[in-house]
Amino acid sequence: MKIGMNMLLWTDHVTETHYPIIEKLKEIGYHGIEIPLGQGDLRHYHKLGNEIAQLDLEVTAVTSIHANTNIASPDKKIRQAGLDQLRWAMDMGAALGVKTICGPFHSAFAHFSQKPPAQAERQWSAEYLHLAGGYASENGITLAVEALNRFECYLYNTMGDLKMLLDQVAHPNVGAIYDSHHAHIEEKNHEGALNTIATHLKHVHISESDRGTPGNGQVHWHSVFNTLQDMGYDGWLTIEAFSRSAPEFANAINVWRDFSPAEEIITQGFDFIKKNWINRKP
């Protein structure tokens, strides 16, 4: 098990100005960080990857697609643009040195048709994720697709939805991420949800009900940690928390206040995961 920290708490584009934060995370004891992929070029990500490697940290990445790059769109040109966007993200991820890229890239983030999911949309999503899986295989990358709550997505909200998608994708380089925040909203319980997605699970986001400090909200954490251990999960437990530090990004995800101080999130959150993983509750 490895503990990671998502840099979206501070920014949606990591640059040299954020190096002191990365160094602080290393001092606390984090095994790696998660980098958002949305802008920049190969040179930028090579340099960033080298900086992270010099600190003896590992790295994962997160990305998303939008209305004009939606692989579930009825417009084939838009679907192709989405596949191109995912290939770009994998190119940047390879330069960065990542093995896992996670995110809700099965469809456009916060884009709604005002109708329930259509079978054709899900078919297109599966088809293009399979194509993306081929490119991921060439780059030694695993794609971990994320189900979102109903207020951010309509196509895939639950682990049952996600399992159906991934069974259809049927590619070894395309799996699932479990996000405790979204599951807290959409699932009946964490045990059942995690067991549903167990055969596809590649990554985990530790995210509180209010997106603040893990352990200070309403997520049933003992169920999350106990079930993951029962499953034999040994991958990343990466904290995902948000703030108003990057206003444009915060506005896009409807974050209107700081939920917890960043220092509290990164220190108490790390200790919380470590304690709950080692001192398992019956």
From TrEMBL:
Alphabetized GO MF terms:
isomerase activity
Name of the protein in question: Xylose isomerase
Q: According to the entry, what is the taxonomic lineage of the organism? A: Bacteria, Pseudomonadati, Bacteroidota, Flavobacteriia, Flavobacteriales
A Pfam family cross-referenced in the UniProt record is: AP_endonuc_2
| Family matches, as SUPFAM superfamilies | Xylose isomerase-like
- The reply to whether Isomerase figures as a keyword in the UniProt entry is yes
- Source organism per entry reads Sediminicola luteus
The Xylose isomerase-like TIM barrel domain covers 22-275
Q: Which UniProt keyword terms apply here?
A: Isomerase
